Amino acid sequence: MTHTVEKIGGTSMSRVNELVETLFIGARKGDDLYGRVFVVSAFGGITNLLLEHKKTGEAGVYARFADADTDHGWHDALSRVAEEMRVAHRAVLSHAGDLAQADAFVADRIEGARNCLIDLQRLCSYGHFRLAEHMLQIRELLSGLGEAHSAYVTTLLLQRAGVNARFVDLSGWRDEGDVTLETRISQALEGVDPATEMPIVTGYAQCAEGLMREFDRGYSEVTFSCLAALTQASEAIIHKEFHLSSADPKLVGAGVAQKLGHTNYDVADQMSNMGMEAIHPKAAKTLRQADIPLRVTNAFEPEDPGTLIDDKPAERPAVEMVTGLDIIALEVFEQDMVGVKGYDAAILEVLTRHKVRIVSKTSNANTITHYLDTSLTVMKRVEADLAKRYPNAEISARLLSMASAIGRDLKGLSVLTRGLQAIAEVGLASVGASQGPRNVDVQFIVEREDLKPVITALHGALIEQKDLVTKEPVKAAA
């Protein structure tokens, strides 16, 4: 049968009771309810408590277990996860029987994980075993708790509403097998008929490849894309709590930001590079190779078709989006660099070793500048390593931001020139700017405090197409 595979993010999952009456059911009845497979993330904030806070880095269970001098830190953190899970499902479940089942599920999974960690600590108290060798498996074990909980609760909620929903657990809980991702999905879906039931699938999947080794927190989108490709879905859909727009509506105005409507995977990759993923690049690659289009919708506006992402070229050149990202500019100046090979490779080796994400880079005869998405703490370690390797080099790190104008086809639009002019018109300046020959993005390097007004100015000039001097819309040619 023709079916879709659809993913719901953590923020939207925290309002899953609202989605029952809109996204899951809405005006659908009977057979129209089915033909959809849902992959769910953990409830908002739960994965942060299990691992570490994605933005602040605050330690969760994983980090406390890894660094524990005593047992109390991670035990308390795990107990907090259990309580927050109960708070999350109490906010969406109302029937006493469903609440009792959800409470029992949390108790079983949390206490099971607690006993596993206690046993591992005891085992590693012997000299032949090293805790560090098991930390990746611990991270995966903890991650799976969040998605298993949200999928189970969602299944209870839908069953109570009369939907034939089925909980599909890919987390490998108490599973003795060590299988590939494709085998894990195939085995879990064996006997499942999307034509007559609604599978609710965990975003985390335990597999021999170890999803977190390569994708870390992006694992749910990898599971989602693999499931779509493996089952030959007609479309892959990601439900967010907002539309993909031409800019952040909070910056340029809710009535000014425009829904993209249609774009391609190339633009999605550029968005990912700027830290605002429509989908993880590796997940996008899986869908592209399987020739499956991706749709990104607002979960709370199910009647809106959202934005379709495929491989079709643009009908005409246009800037489709303006976005920004805080970065750190790492500059290595070495007079002896001229005509000498190897400097760039050595810098890349250091950045790779410290797991620093490179957003962009520029270089000239004696200077290499990398624009990085990382923390100051990591940056200090990088600088120290480079100083040892190049003692005569001038190495500096500067807090900056990058604004980027993105589109499927920017040919002939003079985006770089018009963008610099727009920035100047609001009394600001760009520290640097660049445009590659592929013509899909133009990057403007600015001071951090200037990022928001720069995005607004670029959006006005490049997307709203306001005249740079009069600030009035440009009149169409006769």
What is the quaternary state of this protein? single chain
The CATH class of the largest domain turns out to be Alpha Beta
The CATH architecture term of the largest domain is 3-Layer(aba) Sandwich
Helix content: 40-55%
The CATH homology group name of the largest domain: Acetylglutamate kinase-like
Secondary-structure-based class equals alpha/beta
Helix segment count?
A: 17
Count all strands and give the number. 14
Strand sequence of the main sheet, in spatial order?
3-4-2-1-5-7-8-6
Q: How is this structure best described in words?
A:
The structure is a single chain. The protein is of the alpha/beta class and 478 residues long. It folds into 2 domains: 238 residues, Carbamate kinase; 142 residues, 2-Layer Sandwich (VC0802-like), CATH 3.30.2130. Helix content is 40%, strand content 18%. The C terminus is likely disordered.
Keywords:
478 residues; globular; Carbamate kinase; eight-stranded mixed beta sheet; 18% strand; alpha/beta; 2 domains
Quick structural gist:
The protein is an alpha/beta fold and 478 residues long. It contains 17 helices and 14 strands.
Lay out the secondary structure:
Elements: E1 4-8, H1 10-13, H2 16-24, E2 36-40, H3 46-50, H4 61-67, H5 72-90, H6 96-123, H7 135-160, E3 165-168, H8 181-188, E4 198-202, H9 211-215, H10 219-230, E5 235-240, H11 249-252, E6 262-264, H12 265-273, H13 281-289, E7 294-298, E8 307-310, E9 321-333, H14 343-353, E10 357-363, E11 367-373, H15 376-389, E12 394-406, H16 415-425, E13 432-435, E14 441-446, H17 451-462
Parallel strand pairs: 1-2, 1-5, 2-4, 3-4, 5-7, 6-8
Antiparallel strand pairs: 7-8, 9-11, 9-12, 10-11, 12-14, 13-14
Helix pairs in contact: 4-5, 5-6, 6-7, 8-10, 10-13, 16-17
